[in-house]
Amino acid sequence: MKPVEIAILGFGTVGSGAYRILNEHAKAIARRAACPIAVKRILVRDASRERAVPTPPGVLTESFEEILADPDIRIVVEALGGEEPALGYTLAALEAGKDVVTANKLALALHGRRIFETARAAGRRIAFEGAVAGGIPVIRALREGLTANNIERITGILNGTTNFILSAMTDRGMEYQDALREAQSLGYAEADPSADVEGFDAAYKLAILASLGFEGYVDPRRIPRKGISTVTAQDIALADKFGYRIKLLAGAERADGSLHLSVTPSLVPKGHPLANVNGAYNAVTIEGDSVGQLMLYGKGAGDLPTGSAVVSDIIELVRFPDLSESEIIWQDREMELSDSTARPSEYYVRLLVKDLPGVLGQIATMLGVHGISIATVTQELDNAGRATLLIFTHECERSSVEAAAGTLRTMPFVLSIANILPLWAGTRG
Ligand SMILES: NC(=O)c1ccc[n+]([C@@H]2O[C@H](COP(=O)([O-])OP(=O)(O)OC[C@H]3O[C@@H](n4cnc5c(N)ncnc54)[C@H](OP(=O)(O)O)[C@@H]3O)[C@@H](O)[C@H]2O)c1
Question: Where, residue-wise, is CATH 3.30.360.10 in the chain?
């Protein structure tokens, strides 16, 4: 049988991982796809450079136009990353009549509407299992396995870099900067880590999951986002003392007819499985009205785990070539996101104050004025006449906490507001 010919754009972590799997499992993949699959071209910047994964002569090319003009190439795998030229190549491939597999969450989250409109106009398909949570088949779970449900809640640890850093801080008491440096030296974090540590990457992935789960386009730029760079070893130790681990959670929830989304470091009860997702692993919990709660866990990045997701998409496109495009969500209405500051939560508030009589009373009174009641408060004195106050609040709105923080900053005995983090509420009823 004549193989289906494909091209891979990019031969880095994901491109080479997918290529290896396609070669190493060629026979089984041909059986599962009901047709052999051959990689005809791989686009790189420098085709003369020696590569860790060898390819037959003539497969590497520096010309996207050559791929585009080749009528035998039916599927293009976009594994370049970034906005351009990845987006332009994706649109051009679709317009040229090719299906596209992508692992590029940034391009998909920011330009999903345009990509899917182009695909629909061209009668082509996009598959993107590798774009969220690496090897975990969460896209397929939402698109296929859970379609009987109204999705109520999605909570994910979706970024391996930040999870590695927080795990190192938890397990070895490291400070943020030291853990970040270690992540960089091991290749888990980029030289410029801001996309990961400031929560952008998690927001892109959350936007994709929420778009699928809640059936409407979610713009990642509108998701309230806080990264992990303000989390200190002291926060981690104090959270631990009170039974919590700090995790960067990407959360989407439908409540009272509104959609609430956020990416923020949160305190997760140690007994919950999400608190025990460590290192570079990812996990996603999904709650549906029929299925209840389920959790998917696995490697969220890396050549073979992400390659596994990418190749599963290629197999699907080859096996079901006539399936009509069903991803109407990105072309459809944009989701109204509710004011996330109104979403009630319990909070962890860490302050540094002067150790003077009456301080605690004044703070409690002021919080009360803002409608915040204290669940517990503890203080630790240092030798310099200062006290660290740790306050756990009862449920209150984020807007109240922000207003109270503004007032705290004006109080003469408050030296600093070290951190304010929400407590994750776990599963609902
Ligand atoms: N890494 C992961 O574990 C992971 C997991 C899930 C999703 N993703 C996503 O997958 C995509 C690829 O990530 P990656 O980690 O594989 O990236 P990577 O290791 O940096 O590889 C990128 C590849 O693209 C090539 N490339 C970049 N710009 C090019 C251009 N203008 N023309 C030709 N070739 C170009 C590079 O060529 P050279 O080899 O010549 O430099 C390189 O081979 C990104 O969207 C990423 O977010 C990655």
Answer: 143-299
Instruction: In whole angstroms, give the CA distance from residue 178 to residue 401.
Output: 30
Atom of ligand 1 nearest to the CA of 201: 47
Query: Model confidence over 74-130: pLDDT tens digits?
Result: 999 999 999 999 999 999 999 999 999 999 999 999 999 899 989 989 999 999 999
Architecture of the domain delimited by 4-135+305-330: 3-Layer(aba) Sandwich (3.40)
Strands 281-288 and 347-354: unpaired
Catalytic residue at 354? Answer: no
User: How far is the C-alpha of 7 from the C-alpha of 219, rounded, in Å?
Assistant: 30
Domain 143-299, classified CATH 3.30.360.10, yes or no: yes
- Determine the Cα–Cα distance for residues 215 and 336; give it in Å rounded to an integer: 11
- Tens-place pLDDT, residues 400-420: 999 999 999 999 999 999 999
Question: pTM for the full model?
Answer: 0.95
The CATH code for residues 341-422 is 3.30.70.260
Packed helices 26-33 and 13-24: angle between N→C axes, nearest 10 degrees:
80
What's the CA-to-centroid distance between 79 and ligand 1, angstroms?
5
One-letter amino acid of 72:
D
